[in-house]
UniProtKB/TrEMBL annotation:
GO terms for biological process: protein lipoylation. Coiled coil: none annotated. PANTHER family: LIPOATE-PROTEIN LIGASE (PTHR12561), LIPOYLTRANSFERASE 1, MITOCHONDRIAL (PTHR12561:SF3). It is an enzyme of class 6 (ligase). Residues 33-209 form the BPL/LPL catalytic domain. The keyword NAD does not apply. InterPro entries: aa-tRNA-synth_II/BPL/LPL (IPR045864), BPL_LPL_catalytic (IPR004143), Lipoate_protein_ligase_C (IPR019491), LipoylTrfase_LipoateP_Ligase (IPR004562). It catalyses: L-lysyl-[lipoyl-carrier protein] + (R)-lipoate + ATP = N(6)-[(R)-lipoyl]-L-lysyl-[lipoyl-carrier protein] + AMP + diphosphate + H(+). Its EC number is 6.3.1.20. Pfam families: Lip_prot_lig_C, LplA-B_cat. GO terms for cellular component: cytoplasm. This is lipoate--protein ligase.
Length: 354
């Protein structure tokens, strides 16, 4: 495998001005023909922001009043996964690779360099669940993926010195997701790596951590031996164009949101949380919108929604609607019966934000 390290530090002036530009980088590396080999880059957030997954509803998942009051930016990535709070205490890494049919959705493969480095410095990190890295049962990293054509990206955040209070206040995960983790709040679920760094590593910086991961990936102690590409002004012009056309638009960031009468969510192991916002009139589903933090960002959710609208609100009918909507391909390995039960059973009911 030929891999190239891309230095994006020349663009931090653009990212500081428009945080959404950082969410365009993987799309650029996946779609621009000049990047034919595998690419690894790191991103150091320059200011606090909340990044939501491609299929999430910001009104359900984010405390919009809080982030507006505290000047926290809101962006949306093209990949799936859940909402994360990032700030200068984070380090994000992203592999952008050719799909050879072996590692798409293999989060462990792309997390291994970070895990191995953390083990070397005394942190008992492990991968738990679908795409989380944890220490002592608490999450310090979440991962996401996006496939475009025959290339895909896979990466995650590493929480070193994140403002955990702001993270807790900014995010509103569904109760079904918290319940699946056996916790009551974001704050009780997440941790920084800093408390686990001892001795000579106690003052480790995000730059130090980046260097160690680079050395691990490229099997060298000398950074000068690492094949490196520095982003040019032409590159940044192309990235800014992607932001202007999609990732910086209000329609993309905020999404299209209608306040239907019911919102039910359910967490499925290995897939993530699936939510349906829907209305029922005279025993018939009249409106439906699907959300979630599942990683299949390219599925045709509208096809499922179309099958649901007009369906009698009865279990057998709902099962058939989900089956016809091909939930296996468009969401993941969840059964139509489980999704039907989610809609019918009030234990999965979520409070709709005012």
């Amino acid at each position: 495998m030929i891999i190239l390290y891309v230095d994006i530090s020349t663009g931090y002036k653009y990212i500081k001005e428009k945080p959404e530009i950082a969410q365009c980088l993987s799309v650029y590396f996946l779609t621009n023909k000049k990047f034919k080999d595998d690419v690894l880059y790191f991103y150091h957030p320059v200011a606090p922001q909340v990044i939501v997954g491609a299929n999430q509803n910001v009104h359900f998942e984010v405390n919009l009043d809080y982030i507006h009051q505290h000047g926290i930016a809101l962006t949306r990535r093209g990949a799936g996964g859940g909402a994360v709070y990032v700030d200068p205490g984070n380090l994000t890494y992203s592999f952008n690779v050719n799909d050879d049919g072996t590692n798409y959705m293999n989060f462990r493969h792309f997390a291994d360099p970070a895990i191995e480095v953390l083990h070397q410095i005394g942190v008992d990190a492990e991968m738990t669940g679908r795409n989380d890295l944890t220490v002592n049962g608490q999450k310090f990293s979440g991962m996401s993926t996006l496939k475009i054509g025959n290339r895909f990206t896979c990466g995650g955040t590493l929480m070193l010195d994140v403002d955990l209070q702001s993270a807790s206040q900014a995010l509103n995960p569904p109760k079904s997701k918290l319940k699946s983790k056996g916790i009551k709040s974001v704050k009780s679920r997440v941790t920084n790596l800093r408390p686990y760094l001892k001795g000579k590593f106690a003052k480790l910086t995000s730059d130090d951590l980046q260097t160690m991961i680079l050395q691990k990936v490229f099997h060298t102690e000398n950074l000068k031996d690492i094949p490196t590409y520095i982003m040019s002004e032409d590159d940044w012009d192309n990235v800014k164009q992607i932001a202007q056309e999609k990732f910086g638009t209000p329609d993309w960031v905020m999404g299209t949101t209608q306040e239907f009468g019911n919102y039910h969510t359910r967490h499925f192991d290995g897939i993530g949380t699936v939510g349906v916002n829907y209305s029922v009139e005279n025993g018939i589903i009249t409106q439906a919108k699907i959300y979630g933090d599942f990683n299949n960002a390219g599925g045709d959710l509208h096809h499922i929604e179309t099958q649901l609208i007009g369906t009698p609100f009865k279990r057998d009918n709902l099962i058939e609607a989900f089956r016809t909507g091909d939930v296996q391909s468009n969401i993941g390995n969840v059964s139509p019966a489980d999704l039907a039960d989610m809609l019918i059973d009030d234990q999965y009911k979520e409070e709709i934000p005012k």
